[in-house]
Specification:
By secondary structure, the protein is of the alpha+beta class. Helix content is 16%, strand content 27%. Strand 7 and strand 8 form a beta hairpin.
Length: 176
């Protein structure tokens, strides 16, 4: 009877182990090597070469505190804050505007046999996610996290490079 109990535990453990390996996942942090452009960066949706001139940065990044934008807005300026901000106190006297981020996904061909999810910890305030030039998600909830299933849009080229992920984030005069 004892042998039967041990065999049952062994078989249960083996089934559990095989089940877990079937659902294995590869998680990759993609916080580094993003290209950033303050202003309209929509040209990158059709020509990602445009983004080669954008500034490289590591996330997290807050484009609403870009000092150059405040300087351009004029008024009384202290760091990234301007009395000429469109939203005034409602946007913390930051100027707002558009910010565009672009990065290639670090995909392997083996990743394409499963589900490819992007997880964003937050993008303020209204954001759109594009993969390979196609809009695949819109987020209107500020700093809340969100996931985007890009399985159907992800690919790896013959040269080993994956297509780009582009995030457009916009802060307008709306209340926060």
């Amino acid at each position: 009877m004892r042998k039967m109990g041990r065999l049952r535990v062994f078989i249960t453990s083996l089934v559990l182990l095989l089940s877990l390996s079937a659902f294995s996942q590869r998680k990759v942090c993609i916080d580094s090597d993003w290209k950033f452009h303050y202003g309209d960066g929509s040209a990158a949706l059709t020509d990602i070469g445009v983004a080669s001139e954008w500034r490289t940065l590591t996330l997290p990044h807050d484009r609403s505190v870009e000092c150059e934008a405040a300087q351009a807005a004029g008024g009384q300026v202290v760091g990234p804050f301007s009395t000429n901000s469109t939203g005034k106190f409602q946007t913390g006297f930051t100027v707002g505007g558009e910010g565009w981020y672009m990065r290639r996904l670090p995909l392997l061909k083996s990743d394409l046999s499963g589900c490819v999810l992007l997880y964003f910890e937050g993008a303020y305030n209204h954001s759109w996610v594009y993969v390979n030039g196609r809009l695949c998600h819109e987020n209107v909830y500020g700093y809340s996290s969100f996931r985007v299933d890009v399985t159907d849009l992800a690919y790896v080229r013959s040269n080993g490079k994956a297509g780009p992920v582009i995030l457009e984030a916009e802060l307008t005069a709306c209340c926060n």
